[in-house]
Amino acid sequence: MVTDRSDHPTPAELYDCRFQDDPRDDVSFYRDLAVDAGGAVLELACGTGRVHLPLLDAGVDATGIDLDTGRLARLRERATARGLDADVREADMLDFEPRRAYDLVLCPFNTVQHARSVDDQRTLLAQVHDALAPGGQFVFDTFVPSFDVICETDGEWQEEPVQYGGRTYTHRSRSRVVDSVEQQFEVETETEAPHGAVVHESSYRLSMLPKQQVELLARDSPFDSWSVESGFDGGDPDPAASVRPGRSRS
Q1: Cβ atoms of residues 192 and 217 within 8 Å
Q2: Are residues 203 and 84 in the same domain?
Q3: Would you say residue 202 lies in a domain?
Q4: Domain identity same for 166 and 140
Q5: Where is region (Disordered) located (predicted)?
Q6: Looking at residue 185, what is its pLDDT?
Q7: What is the predicted pLDDT for the residue at 99?
Q8: Is 196 found in the same domain as 92?
Q9: How far is CA 79 from the centre of its chain?
Q10: What is the predicted pLDDT for the residue at 240?
């Protein structure tokens, strides 16, 4: 049961707290790509600005879209506090109107895995291709499904403390395979206030995207070339890598 949320931080504020010290090195990876692109950049699912604000800090001509209006509001608030002008809007990455041709489109933090069906995945690639300038790139990352980890943690709650306003909240999440044929899993989250009541909860489904499926999708897409790398430092795909960036060039 979810209690009254009025005296507690919003999901977007708690998200910021959880990832403000995130050890992932994807932020510098995407920032450097955007700077090197030297032109217009679009970030899909820009959220509260974990990647987007560093792009703006670096002087990148960046635009962002997201379906979550609460996270977009938080991004704008954070941008204003830093003296930045954030050009972000509510839109679906599977169905958006490009406002210009982009030299680079980014989709960080496994977000492409929200496109769960083959039709949605093909739509995403076609949509992004149409938004790119000639020679532009689409760069995204996915995590590599480790079956050892899946077997060990499937359905088990994982929790972490989150500090906000001098109070300690508890964030819990669990993942479980819900469709082994379609290779989909569900992520459930809940946030518990210091007094023990749940103040936020959510659930969503993701599709596993192993390298072979990404390759098949890329070959079927309008892109002229593509590559899959191991981690954010480049190199050939490593079976032990937890994240694989993919690049497609129009």
Answers
A1: no
A2: no
A3: yes
A4: no
A5: 227-250
A6: 93
A7: 94
A8: no
A9: 19
A10: 42
Please report the pLDDT score of residue 239 as a whole number. Answer: 45
Name 88's Cβ contacts closer than 8 Å, sequence gap at least 6. Answer: 46, 52, 63, 64, 65, 66, 72, 75, 76
Count the domains in the chain. 2
- CB burial readout 210-234, b (16+ within 10 A) else e: eeeebeebbeebebeebebbbbbee
Q: Which residue has the tokens 């403390």?
A: 161
Give start and end residues of each alpha helix (H) in 59-197. 69-81, 118-131, 147-153
Residues 201 and 237 placed together within one structural domain of the fold: no
Residue 2 domain-assigned?
no
Domain identity same for 126 and 26: yes
pLDDT of residue 1: 46
Residues 186, 213, single domain; the answer is: no
Indicate the pairing of strand 132-143 with strand 102-107: parallel
73: phi then psi, degrees, rounded to nearest 5: -60, -40
pLDDT the model gives residue 20: 77
Q: What is the pLDDT of residue 152?
A: 81
Q: How many CB atoms lie within 10 A of CB 33?
A: 18
Residue 45 has what pLDDT? 98
Tell me the DSSP string of 8-53. Answer: S--HHHHHHHHHTT----HHHHHHHHHHHH-SEEEEES-TTSTTHH
DSSP class of residue 222 equals S
Range of the domain at 82: 11-144+208-249
- Chunk the chain into consecutive blocks of 10 residues (it has 250) and report each block's average pLDDT, rounded to whole numbers: 68 91 82 97 97 97 98 97 98 97 96 96 96 95 78 89 95 94 94 95 94 89 87 61 57
Are residues 55 and 97 both part of a single domain? Answer: yes
Residues 236 and 123 in one domain: yes
